[in-house]
Amino acid sequence: MVKWNRSVCLSLVCLAALLLASCTPAAAPQATAPTAAARAEAKVGEAFAIGVLVASTGGAAALGEPERDAARLVQSQLEAQGGIIGAAGLRHPIKVVIYDTGSTADTAITLAKKLINDDKVVAIVGGTTSPESLALVPIVQEAKIPFISAASSSQIVEPVADRFWVFKTAQNNRHTAPQQVEYAKAKGLTKIANLYVNNSYGEDGRNAIRDATKAAGVEIVIEETFEAADTNMMAQLTKVKASSAQAVLVTAIPPAAAILTKQYRELGLKIPLIQNHGIGMKSFITQAGPENAEGVLFPMGKLVAAQALPDNDPQKAVLLNFIKEYEAFTKNPTSTFAGHVWDGMQLTLKALEKMPTGLKLEEQRAKIRDSIENTKAFPGTGGIFNLSAQDHVGLSANDIVLVKIADGNWVYMPREKW
To answer: Is the pTM of this model over 0.90?
Structure first.
């Protein structure tokens, strides 16, 4: 009989373990955010710059100021954590370069060229308004740099074949217009007035409402337009009052949207006023006056419904965290427009984390563009982003909820309350 001593037994056990390990598939690596210690130990790699263009002054400042603050929030977080950890495990400092367009397309063009040629940014986020963003399309297309707009018009990203370098994080009007129309129809209001600001955003909303009314069997009995800088819409509203309209649907942003709302009440119009997501900031209530804004309805992303979302909704944690961080940083109420810039910056940072090292600037820009276009199931503040070569927004009507202004605040209106 063979005698087995302790040493031999241990050797055989170790050999068996080694053989078993060599035959067992390795577990898939789990992606985890780098700890503060890991970030501190990581070697410093190349620094990157991200450009941000926002209308923090001028006519669109009500949108651009919160967008600027969202960019500053991300900037402060990046500085605190020392940048990002890239694909090669290197720590890359990130410089966020923020410029104010003054709400003008010409200034936006000049500053975009500065970001591209002087600041050497890898991507541009922003373009507060649709006219500004549309003016930037040929600039970024020629420069071959990814541009993630914060504006709404579908023309910014369509046709996609001609917008290879352009994306946007704001919902399209065709995502929001159906809720405006469907609410009216649910209330038995089948004759509507379609009012819109006379620019690319307003025209896009007008067209989206036309399409939505056809699909829903609702009739547009009157259409009226006004300029973004107008301070008197009484002529248009008087025509609406004399018409057979049972509800008024509006596509505009403040200050025009707030002025229209004031004069709507002054004229004594009692039919429902259903605006678009262009009023999705609390400052609209202040500008219009709480008593005038009372009862106004509008569609927007799920930001307002964050607390009411089920715990398994992939947006809930993102939204609650964004609200907490933004309000702590700015001391101001959360804005859906701030979320548009935050989403754009997060998409850019995710792309930078995946980018190989050793690339030239033009190659870096191309890699970021490709990465953004292939984003799937990314939960942002505006919705769940699923982008593709055919869709440079990646959102859907499922990312939209209806909101009512009541007692100076936003109130989530689930469909069962319509």
So the answer is: no
Return the H-helix or E-strand segment holding 54. Answer: strand 48-54
**173-300+401-417 has the same fold as 48-171+311-387:** yes
> Where are the domains positioned within the chain?
48-171+311-387, 173-300+401-417
d(CA 210, CA 264): 22
Longest dimension (CA), the chain: 111
* CATH number 3.40.50.2300 given to 173-300+401-417: yes
Tokens at residue 400, please? 């939209």
Strand partners, 90: none
How many Å apart are CA 261 and CA 294, to the nearest integer? 10
Whether 346 shows a pLDDT value over 90: the answer reads yes
Asked whether the beta carbons of 161 and 142 are under 8 A apart, the reply is no
pLDDT tens digits for range 246-275: 999 999 999 999 999 999 999 999 999 999
Domain 48-171+311-387 has what CATH class?
Answer: alpha beta
225: left (phi over 0), alpha (psi -120 to 50) or beta: beta
- C-alpha distances (whole Å) from 84 to each of 47, 77, 92, 349, 379 are 10, 10, 5, 8, 19
